[in-house]
Amino acid sequence: MSTAASTLGDASGIETTQRSGLSRTAGRFRRSRPAMISVTILALLVIAAYIVPLVFGMDPLEQLRGARLLSPSSSHLFGTDEAGRDLLARCLTGLQISIQVALAAALMGGVIGTLIGYTAGYARGIVDTVLMRLMDTMLAFPNILMAIVVVAVLGSGVRNVTIALAITNIPLFARISRGAMLSELGQVYVESARSIGCSPIRIIFRHVAPNTIAPLVVQLALAMAFAILGEAALSYLGLGVQPPDPSLGNLLSAGQTYILSGSQYYVLFPAAILALLLFALNLLADATNDVIDPASRG
Amino acid sequence: MIRYIVRRLVEAVPVLLLASFAVFMLVRLVPGDPASALAGPNATPEQVQQLREQLNLGGNPFVQYVHWLGHAFEGNFGNSIQYRLPVGHLIRTQLEPTLQLGIAAYIFCLIVGIGLGILAARSGFWNYVANVFAGIAIGVPTFVLGILLLVLFAARWQILPSGGWASFTDDPGLALKDLILPTIALGCITSAVLMRFVRTSLRQVLQQDYIRTARAKGIGERSVVMGHALRNALIPVITVSALQVGRLLAGALVIELVFARPGLGRLIVDGVQARDYPLIQALILLFVVIFILVNLIADVTYGLVDPRIHQ
């Protein structure tokens, strides 16, 4: 079957090897214990964020009279905050915001960065130099400062924070996709696609893109981890999600004011959720990297 | 060598010009009219016009830019909108606490990173310790680590202050005490990064022929590692550690707020919240200059330590 397909020439031959390669990768992924652990943690967190509040009818903004800064109990598993609001509900809503910002910022930054990288890698020459110089300059600037600068221009709030983090995610995607594009362009199949008259757009997206996807998937997980961290940091600094809306970052800064007066649970729950989320995403990135490229395992 | 330094300095000029122009244009990128937004709904047209001039919004942007850059060279960035004080003065007063923390964290990283790296390169047990340390340091965000340190050391055990700042010239003891927790919180990630570099680099060097020769001559193991191997192993580490200075300073901005320290972090966050554009522009330009200088120093020291790189 595969020999028959490969004699057909360009696209179909590539696709058969691609598909079998993909299913082999998927099998390795399922057998990898770190990968399965991280996927399980992430799935549980997503269920906790989106389904638990619905099922139990939790309201992150409802204020209970006389229930300020309660310790964890059976009626409030995480206790309550300074305005008598249920902390579990607030943490889970904060988790929702983290997940949304992470997905949106990683995908937006990923798509734009990858397009820039493909363009630079395919065009070479002056376009390449100008684009990659710009990306390197952005990369030289620490992420968090870059995000603060964008928020300074656009203002605070979830939407602007997402845009800020998407922008800071662009240069790494551009660099990775450019590198992958450059190494693929030397392959024979690109030459044959060109010789039968495929347009650059078709060559990039139909032929080269599927072969450069692996490192970009790893970077996507890392970009999500960074976006979650960035949103939490910006909200912690008061530049992101504004109270009374909860986010893991502003829960941390609100909870921190009560550390010395004895309500230490307040700050520990959002900290633990944040750490778990970041741990799972970093583990996923490492595991995916090992599955895609077993030789790189350290 | 001097030619090399001069060439790198000349190369930095266009980058600096481009970055400063981007910083200058920030205010013009703000959606809407920042001057009337800052002046508030009750402002007279004269007040709005005055703010517009303070933000360099009137007239040709290029003429305004040259003007602004000329003043910037003299350290004059105009007046802060919220504090009504010269921006240069504000930055100078807040520079010391940030530099103090940055330098302390850098020293911490060098000691922990290189020390742990050497141990981990040669012993299985220490390698395990180093891996656990790196896993925690890289997994937990710096500001969350800072909060956790506060919960333990300031609230639970009450052995270290929860925040504050003192100048080393006024009260060295208090300055040191106030520095311990923020330094650990800020330095952990960078220590882990450095540790990995030192470990890899030292392991590679230890496999080289001249090390086998040294061992065959009967030199003690300590002298082989510290005297012969470490010298070469640390060459790439110098560049990496210099590049981390910029990251440490950026991290210091956030850590300062965790530990209620004054400094550039407080200044930039307040500035962004109050939309104090002259202050924001000056601070960002300062950081751009610092990052360019740090990169330059990293390259030059690399050339100094390893003469093979001259050309």
Key attributes of the depicted protein:
heterodimer; A: 298 residues; mainly alpha; MetI-like fold; 0% strand; elongated; B: 311 residues; globular
Number of DSSP helical runs of chain B: 12
How far is the first residue's CA from the last residue's CA of chain A?
A: 37 Å
**Biggest sheet architecture of chain A:** none
Largest interface: A-B, 36 and 43 residues
End-to-end separation of chain B in angstroms reads 9 Å
What number is the mean pLDDT of chain A?
86
Task: Produce the secondary structure layout.
The complex is a heterodimer of chains A (298) and B (311).
Chain A: H1 2-7, H2 10-31, H3 33-50, H4 52-56, H5 87-123, H6 125-140, H7 143-154, H8 158-185, H9 188-195, H10 200-236, H11 248-256, H12 265-292
Helix pairs in contact in A: 2-12, 3-5, 3-12, 5-6, 5-8, 5-10, 5-12, 6-8, 7-8, 8-10, 9-10, 10-11, 10-12, 11-12
Chain B: H1 2-29, H2 34-39, H3 45-54, H4 61-73, H5 87-122, H6 124-139, H7 142-156, H8 172-206, H9 209-216, H10 221-258, H11 264-273, H12 277-305
Helix pairs in contact in B: 1-4, 1-12, 5-6, 5-8, 5-10, 6-8, 7-8, 7-10, 8-10, 10-11, 10-12, 11-12
